[in-house]
Amino acid sequence: xxxxxxxxxxxxxxxxxxxxxxxxxxxxxxxxxxxxxxxxxxxxxxxxxxxxxxxxxxxxxxxxxxxxxxxxxxxxxxxxxxxxxxxxxxxxxxxxxxxxxxxxxxxxxxxxxxxxxxxxxxxxxxxxxxxxxxxxxxxxxxxxxxxxxxxxx
Length: 153
Description:
Layout: H1 2-16, E1 22-26, E2 28-30, H2 43-53, E3 59-63, E4 69-70, E5 72-74, H3 75-87, E6 92-97, E7 102-103, H4 104-115, E8 120-124, E9 151-152
Parallel strand pairs: 1-6, 2-5, 3-8
Antiparallel strand pairs: 4-7, 6-9
């Protein structure tokens, strides 16, 4: 709620005073210096940690049924997106993120493949987080230089 409230305050301020407001809405961001333990980590970090700790041929627990999908964007792509947004003429809220969506099971399979391990998954009850939202891809589509990389909508 705080994010939406702040967006609305900034937009209201821009209607009353001569200031341009550009709001970047981020999809799941990951990369170096991100939290990787302690329960506050993003799914990619949590899966990487679990696979790293598992024996080859071992089993990791994954909350939910593995079908939840998300889009993940690397931190440097996020920074590029913020820079491009600030250099643009767009005003208001813009979604910044990667156009590829992956399921939790696909994420586990990718991490296991990169690790060179055979990993089995046990789906358990637990919080699965917010399922991916259906973002509009209209704004800044032509403005991006990444092709299939980060998107702005």
